[in-house]
Specification:
The chain is mainly β and 368 residues long. The chain is built from five helices and 24 strands.
């Protein structure tokens, strides 16, 4: 994990920016569940099916003595060879949902609110038990019973055109030349033309980067502005907590905020480097939460107490930046092996000659 930091809201937050794909990655996650993946919705967590998806994410949150686990996956019906004709749980996950004996009741909710009937005609099997909202269907599960929900489209469904873009867009990238010094830039855009946005930003930077926070600059629509009053900076510890940058502010409508800060990469020993040192280090994504001011209905002085990482339902929408792959100066790791090979060759040649000369016997009769 790329460091864990203790936040002012009495919580801990950590990110794993990159991990090799392995079918055993799900085992510790499922072991936290009461059914261990044997029944309930966790039965859908099958590694071979999950890692075939274009995108998946796992998240664990602990708040108010409650453990929240979530898995987000993106399935492409075209990739799964359905051509939008239909899809079911068994097709996507390789299994149906089985009711858990440890739960008093279970619900399987299908949100179809983004698919209007004029864009796609569909049938759901089994039939809905009750409506939660417009185009929301829920089916009750009883223990020891299985359920396989399927959707069949009548004709071609124009699903990709229904994807809505975020009102706030954030990008993070690195600039500069060379392998020692550089800078990070964070660009936040409010695409909404009418509403001001309240935003919270959190970024964790590994201690391998020596940050020059005194050179930090913030611009609003290309105009230099002072840092907000609640701008928080925490320097990290070697082999410990990473650097932390967080702030809250109100971003005007149709505005662009740019944050820039410089860094210098530390000298690393060979024990601090990953197995594939030439690849570099992965920096975790930054977290941005936002919501229109009108939806919060709070005094601006109280907005800082809204939990950025609360597991409970929150009016804030979360978006993440891209992860960054940073290259460090890498020595020639083959030189120690060359020295070892040459040294052992010389020692073996010397020891073999000493061994031969010590144990060699001479025939005295041949010299008489």
């Amino acid at each position: 994990m790329s460091g864990t930091v203790k936040l002012m809201m009495d919580g801990y937050y950590g990110l794993l920016p990159q991990e090799a794909v392995c079918t055993e990655n799900l085992t510790p996650f499922k072991n936290l569940l009461p059914t261990r993946g044997k029944s309930g919705i966790s039965k859908l967590l099958r590694p071979l099916k999950l890692y075939q998806t274009p995108y998946h994410s796992m998240q664990i949150q602990y708040s108010n003595n409650m453990l929240y686990q979530s898995v987000i996956t993106v399935y492409d019906p075209k990739v799964r060879k359905h051509q939008y004709k239909g899809v079911s749980l068994s097709d996507m996950f390789g299994s149906s949902v089985k009711g858990s004996v440890l739960a008093e009741s279970s619900e399987l909710i299908l949100d179809m609110s983004q698919i209007a009937e004029e864009h796609a005609q569909y049938d759901i099997s089994p039939k809905k038990v009750f409506d939660m909202n417009d185009h929301h269907f829920a089916t009750l599960l009883s223990p020891n019973t299985s359920l396989d929900v399927s959707i069949s489209f009548k004709g071609k469904a124009n699903i990709p055109t229904l994807i809505k873009s975020s009102s706030v867009v954030v990008h993070r990238y690195q600039t500069g030349s060379g392998l020692v010094e550089g800078s990070f830039s964070v660009k936040i855009q409010n695409l909404n033309l009418d509403d001001d946005m309240y935003i919270q930003y959190l970024e964790l930077i590994p201690k391998k980067f020596r940050m020059y926070f005194h050179k930090m600059k913030m611009k609003l629509n290309d105009q230099l502005i002072p840092l907000p009053p609640d701008f928080t900076i925490r320097t990290g510890l070697h082999q410990g907590a990473p650097n932390e940058v967080s702030f809250n502010l109100i971003l005007p409508s149709n505005a662009t905020l740019l944050l820039q800060y410089s860094y210098e990469k530390e000298f690393l020993t060979f024990t601090d480097r990953p197995p594939d040192a030439d690849r570099g280090f992965d920096l975790p994504s930054s977290l941005l939460a936002y919501a229109p001011i009108e939806e919060l209905h709070l005094d601006p002085t109280l907005m800082q107490f809204i939990g950025l990482l609360d597991a409970a339902p929150s009016p804030l929408h979360r978006v993440y930046t891209e992860s960054i792959l940073a290259s460090f100066p890498t020595p020639d790791f083959s030189m120690p092996f060359n020295v070892i090979i040459i040294s052992t060759a010389l020692v073996s040649m010397f020891s073999s000659q000493v061994f031969v000369q010590t144990l060699k016997t001479y025939d005295e009769s041949s010299h008489s």
